[in-house]
Amino acid sequence: MDAIIKQMELTFLAENFYSKIKYFENIPAVPKRNLILTRLGYRNGVTELNENDRVLLEDSIRQGEYLCKPVGAYLIVPVLSISESCIILENGIRFDSNGLLKLLNNSRSVVLMAATVGKEVVDRISYEVSQGKAAAGLIIDSVASQTADAALDWMVQLLRKILVREGKILTKHRYSPGYGDLPLSYQEEIFKALQLDRLKMSLTEKFMLIPEKSVIAISGVEEKGEAV
């Protein structure tokens, strides 16, 4: 993974780092096993599995990992203005959210990012449930959710390695539409900014992402000396 990141760093440094959407195919995202199990309600030292359950768990995790095809994109947009009530980006997006403002208070730029694990794994989940194999579907569902988050984590790691050369850092946390006081409707503006249709993604009338196992997030870029 370090070799892949090193190669990408060299490529990006030769390009205009800002205002260009970066797309990634075949992201080597590895979901954390403990998070997969936690999502399933497994408690270490408490939950007991019989042999059949263990076989089902292992087989379903492997199947989920095989079916997930993580891809993603991000865009760094400079902040045009920030006040006590909103933050406006240079591309015209305006965020009215106290929670997001708190996160981005010291940011000079904002990272808009998205990841998806594709349609194939989502179709498999539906198939397993339709065949009366809800347990297998639930396990694969957990794998897909954690893999999508892992794809974002991979992009964040890459960004941190690149930004440190400029004396900048990412905020410790990221924020997603639908969380806190940031309406889910903001997914539409971010979807358009990232041109996510290029990743075979779409958006419903209620601003839900398709494929279902897809995520959008926002992070801030701070000068290293301004981090809190």
- Oligomer state of the chains in this structure: single chain
Radius of gyration: 19 Å
From the spread of the alpha carbons, the general shape counts as elongated
Secondary-structure element series: HEHHEEEHEHHEHEEE
CATH class bucket: Alpha Beta
Under CATH, the topology is which? NADH Oxidase
Task: Profile the largest sheet.
Answer: 7 strands, antiparallel
Work out the count of structural domains.
Answer: 1
CATH architecture: 3-Layer(aba) Sandwich
Number of helices: 7
**In total, how many beta strands?**
9
Round the mean pLDDT to the nearest integer and report it: 89
SS content category: alpha+beta
- Contiguous low-pLDDT stretches (5 residues minimum) are 9-18
What is the helical fraction, as a range of percent? 40-55%
Fold blueprint:
Layout: H1 2-13, E1 22-24, H2 33-39, H3 51-67, E2 71-82, E3 87-89, E4 94-95, H4 98-104, E5 107-116, H5 119-130, H6 134-163, E6 168-170, H7 186-194, E7 202-203, E8 209-210, E9 214-223
Antiparallel strand pairs: 1-2, 2-3, 2-5, 3-4, 5-9, 6-9, 7-8
